[in-house]
User: What shape does this take?
Amino acid sequence: MALDRFDRFRDLLIHAPALGFWLDVSRIRFDEGFFERMAPRIQDALRRMADLEAGAVANPDEQRRVGHYWLRAPALAPTPEIRGDIERTLARVLAFASDIHAAHLRPERAARFRRLLVVGIGGSALGPQLAAAALGSPADRMVPHFFDNTDPDGFDRVLDAIGDDLGATLAVIISKSGGTKETRNGMLALEAAYRRLGLTLGAHAVAVTGEDSALDRYATENGFLARFPMWDWVGGRTSELSAVGLLPAALQGLDIQALLAGAADMDDLTRTAEPLENPAALLALAWYSATGGAGRKDMVILPYKDRLELFSRYLQQLVMESLGKQHDLDGREVWQGIAVYGNKGSTDQHAYVQQLRDGVDNFFATFIEVLRDHAPGRRHDEVEPGVTAGDYLSGFLQGTRSALTDRGRESITVTIEAMGPRALGMLIALYERAVGLYAWLVNINAYHQPGVEAGKKAAQEVISLQGQVLAALSRHPGRAMTVQEVAAAAGADDPEPVFWILRRLAANPERGVVREVPPGGSIFDATYRITG
Ligand SMILES: O=P(O)(O)OC[C@H]1O[C@](O)(CO)[C@@H](O)[C@@H]1O
Assistant: This one.
């Protein structure tokens, strides 16, 4: 049994020595004849990927090219203009970062920029956050901070952490569309914070955005230090190796050339036509086998490395925004997707791994192993005679993998030699391509996200309704009104959203809405009035 298992491990293992990379899918139960059956489909997916890389329109409903692979191999770009754009932008990113580091570009009052505050969300934040956490060190040129929401308390926390250094903080505002409300709100909160110090946003800010977007215009009108492009052929969730990720990383002082080189190396490896030698194809096939090609199991990401803690969050967007689709490419209703979650091992061992082993079998795990314990030259202190903390980390990984296998729970293991920019570039490129190939295996468009619009539209309606609610209360200053009365006065058919709006406004006394619950009454007997 153990020998059979080792044979299977040896047969399925992909090892790319030049990259310091291994992929093990031997703990996925591919059924009899799986690879033969899937051969035409994976070959078709690989062909479509080659067409995409050659510049075909791969996002049919938005009629867009999908070009994130060109970012690390500009010579592959389908036109000289695109190649030139990529090369010029990379040169500008490096030059801008170097000007900031050398204090050739300075803040309004401080001697130099010491911190950077990235304002963005989704694909315009997750990659930069991942790179900052995975690669940062005390030797960084600038300390990174992030606004990735429209949570005022979140803004306060970050601004409090920056403290007196705000005047030495460079704001990097990132939005492909340039119209995302969370990002706009973060930028405006930051602008107000600079203003309180008598400073202007523009003198401390740089934008990464699509040409002529609302953010692009705002940056021009407000004299931002620089503007970097975000092209329509790069999707938000695959934008880490465009200016979106490269600019913050370069400012932080990370080696962005190594990041790009790692991705380019992985791209080379994953263009291989033989699926059993192509890690992205094998990963996509493993996902297909584990989930029945129908998202029947969740992808649990367990990186045994603190620096990769955000990788599962990054993959959550990459995988779920790409694969979570109602319709396939032929318009059939398919409700596709694979749910992704995870934090890090061995920490998760003490949280949800109990369920993974003993509970519902609705997942497959992906272990991410980093062979080198820490940077060269660091001490390998013993925790027991002859045993280090790193030995335990490795032991826990193998132990959990075996414990899952013993219970028939499937797993994949991705192994890299050492953590660093090159390895991160490889991991990003690996998953980008695996997601694209998987999408074609199940015949969906990985490159659009029609579903996210519904929530944005509904949020805008709530904001309008709030305006009507406040106007209705203001027309009757001091008068106490029930939710139903407010709803009627606001012209709202449904009192429930009005209830939600009033409940929140009343919890924020500065907003001037007072709630009174009559003695013995319930929250639904409450009245609301406006003060001041
Ligand atoms: O970069 P933008 O345009 O601000 O978008 C941020 C994120 O919002 C989304 O469009 C989803 O709402 C993501 O696809 C994207 O990464």
Observations:
- The domain at 68-254 is CATH 3.40.50.10490 (Rossmann fold).
